Amino acid sequence: MLPHLPGRTYVRYGRSVSAAPLPARTLPRRDAEARARLHAVAARTQPFVAAGDRRLPVRGPIGALLPAGGVQRGSTIAVGGAPGSGSTTVALTLAAAATSAGEWAAIVDPADSLGRGTIGARAAAEAGVELDRLAVARCASADRWGAVVAALLDGITLVVAAVPPRLRLGDARRLVARARERSAVLVALGDWPVEAAMRVHTGPGGWRGLDAGSGLLEARDLNVSVEAKGRGFARAG
Amino acid sequence: MTTRTGCVWCPDWPVVAARRRDPALQAVPVFVRERVGARELVRAASAEARAVGVTRGMRRREAEAQCPEAVCIDADEALEARTFELVARAVEAFTPRVVLDRPGLCAFATRGPSRYFGGDDALGVRVQQEVASALGDPKSDVRIGIADGGFTARLAARRADTTAPYVVEPGASAAFCAPWPVAVLDDPDLASLLVRLGLPTLGDVAALPADAVLARFGADGRRFHDLARGLDAGPPVLVTPPPDLVEQTELDPPVARVDAVAFAAKGLAGRLLFRLAERGLACTRVVIEAETEHGERLARCWRHDRVLTPAALAERVRWQLDGWLLGRVDDGADEDLDTTTGGLTLLRLVPDEVVPADGRQLGFWGGDQAAHDRADRALARVQGLLGYDAVTTAVVQGGRTAAEQIRWVPWGDAREPERPLVVDTFPAAWPGALPAPFPARVLDPPAPAQLSDEHGNAVVVTGRGEQSGDPARLECAVLPGGGGAVRGWAGPWASDVRWWDPLARRRGARWQVVVDCGAAGGDVACVVLVEAGRAGVEAIYD
Fold it and tell me: What is the pLDDT of residue A101?
C-alpha cells in the first residue's frame, strides 16, 4: 500500500512505480541542524505568543547581539548614541520585533523646533515594522511626556520614547515600574537617567557605497554595544 | 410581526436647515459639503443644484464644475439636529412615540392615531400640514409614507409627493417593494454583489428561498431578505430589555453646556453598551431622557438600522442635546422652540429595543482582537491628552523627498495615501526620489546648514543644475560635533517642482553626503537641500 500523505491528492500509478522505495533524501531529516533551522522558522512565524514566553525575538544582526536574541517583556531598554550613529535604526528594529509578533508599537516623538526631527516611516518599514500597527504620538511639552508614555504603556506592547532633557528621576522610575507591571517594553531613546535592563549604545560607524561625486549609499557598519547582565562589547556589521 | 408605521421624510434636510438659518440662501442653488477622510464630498444639494447634475457623494470640485453659481456651505450636524427637533415636536402632537432615525427622517406608529383621525390618509395629510406649518412654510417639502414596517414606510415616503401622503395598504408591502432596485438596501457592497448575482430588484431577492439566503449570507442575509419581502427590519426574536440596564448620571451642579453634557453622555453610552454586551445583547433603539433643574422631563427615542456602537450612540445623544439645550434655531429672536429653562440635572439612557448580539468574529489565532482593543483604548486616551491630530499612523505614499513620502494620518482615520506610490503595477514616476536605504530621521523644515567647497565658499547650483564646487565641508547644529569634512557625496539632483504654479513652485538641488563628524560621531550620512542659495539638512540616516 501507498503511505498516506496528508494534504496531497494522489494518483495511483502502476505497481512498479508505487512499489519503488522512496529515495532516502526526501525522508524528513532529524539531525540537529534541521531541528535548529525549524526552530528558527517557528520562532519567526509563530502566530501567537504563549503566556509563558515573555520574550519578543528581534531579527537580524542586532537580535544576535541581544541576550537570548530578543527583548524581555516588562523590561526597559535604554538606547543611546550620537545623532546619525544609528540609535533610531536600533529602536525601530526593536519596534519591528513587537509588530511582527502581531502586537502594537508606539513612538513618542518630541516634535521640538531644535529638531531631532520625526521618524522616517519608510525607514521604519525597511526595518520590518508593520506601519498599520505603529502609532506615532507627537508630544511637544516635556511636562506631559511622562503621562503620555504611561498611558501608552497601559495598552501597547512596545513604546519607543525619545527622552526629554531634564527628566526627573522619579518620573523615570515610575515608568520603569509601569512597564514591568503591564508587561510592556519601554525603549528609551536618549539619555536615560535611571536603571535599565539593557543599555544599547551606538558608537561611531561607517557608510559604504558613496565616493566623492559618485555612487549612492548602500550599506552601513553599525557599531553597537550592548550592556546587559554580563554581556560585554560586541560588534555588528 | 410588523407594526403599521408612518415615516416623515424631509428631503435634503441639511439644505433646509441651512436655509432656515440664512434666508438669503432661499433664492440660490445650495449644496452642503462634508469632509470624508481627505476628500470633500457633497452631503446634500438643493433641488436646483440637483437638476443640473449635482448628486450626493460627488466631490466638491465636480459639483462646482456642474453648478458654478451654487453656494457651497459646510455641514453642521448640530444645526440639522436642532432644526429637526421642530419636526419631532410637531409629530409628537399626534403620537407620543416618535422614533428618530437621523435628522431629516423620523417614524411613528400609526395604529392609534389613524383610528382617531379617521384613517391613514387623513392622518398623513394632517401630519404633513402640521410639520409644514411648524417649519414656517406651508409649502415645505415634507413627505409622508405609511406602510407595514419602517423600511417599507421609508420607501413609501420616497414615492410620496409634497401634497399627499403615500399609503401602502396593509398586506401589500411585498408587492410595493418588489420593483425597487436593491440599492435601496443602503449597502453598496451588498447591492453590487446582488446585481452581479442577477438579482437587480427587491422582488428578485424576495423570491429566493429564505433558507438559501440564510445559508449564503448568514444573519445579515436574513435581515435583507425580510426587508425585501416587506417585513420589518426588526429582529425576529425581540428580547425584552432587562429593567436594570438603565444607565443614568446625575449632573451636579446642573449643566447647560452641550459639550459638558455630551462628555458625560459618552461615558454613559460606553457603559450601557458594555453592560449589554456582557449579557450577549446589542441595542438598536434607545430612549434618551433628561430632567432639568426646574423639573421638566424630556425624552426622545432614537433608532439605528444596525446595532448601535458607542460612537453612534454618543453622536445621537449629542444631536438630541443640541436640540434641547440650544433649541433656538435662528440666531435672532424666534418662538421656534420652547427650550429647556435651566441646566440638566439628570441624563438617562434606556435601551428600548435590544437584540441578541451576533458576536464578533475574533482573529483566527485569538488574542489579536484583545490586543487591538487595548491599543485602541490607550491611543484614544493619548489623543485626549495631546489632541486628535497628535496621535498618528504613517502611510507611505509617492513623493520625491523623505518628508513627502510619508503622510501622517490621525489615529482612527482611514489610512489612504494622497499620492499613489504605485500606479497599476508600475511604480509611479517620482524622478529624483532616492532609493533605499531610507533616512530614519526626517527634518521638516530642513535644519539650517552650511555646505561649502574646499575654499570655504557656499556651494550653490546654477540654472543648468551644475554645482559651483565640490562639497568639502558641511556644518549643521543637528550633526554631532556641529558637522565636519565631507567624506563622500553624490549629486546634485536638481528639482523644479510645480513650475506651472508661481506660488507653490520650489526649485532646489539635493546631495547625499557622508560627513566625518570626528571621534564622537563617526561617519554620518544625510541629505542636504540647497534652495534659494541656502543649505539645509533634510534628513539624517540615523
Answer: 82
Q: Measured on CA atoms in the order B370, B376, B379, B383, is the torsion positive or negative?
A: negative
> Could you read off the pLDDT of B166-215 as tens digits, one per residue?
999 888 888 899 999 988 888 888 888 889 989 899 999 999 888 888 88
Partners of residue B421 in chain A, C-beta under 8 Å: none
* CB B127, CB B143: distance < 8 Å: no
Q: Which three cell numbers stand for residue A41?
A: 522558522
What are the chain B neighbours of A203 within 8 Å (beta carbons)?
A: 522
B151 class by beta-carbon count within 10 Å (0-12 exposed, 13-18 middle, 19+ buried): buried
A84 with B367: Cβ contact below 8 A: no
Instruction: Tell me, yes or no, if A89 comes closer than 8 A to chain B by beta carbon.
Output: yes
The beta strand positions in B256-296, using DSSP E, are 281-292
Here the ipTM equals 0.75
Beta-carbon neighbour count of residue B122 at 10 Å?
14
Which residues does chain A have within 8 Å of residue B413's beta carbon, measured at their own beta carbons? none
Cell of A203: 558608537
Angstrom distance (rounded) from CA A64 to CA A58: 8
Instruction: Tell if the CB–CB gap between B442 and A135 is shorter than 8 Å.
Output: no
Beta bridge partners of B525: B514
Contact A150, A138 (CB under 8 A): no
pTM: 0.56
At which residue does the C-alpha cell 440664512 appear? Answer: B22
Which grid cell sits at B174?
Answer: 411585498
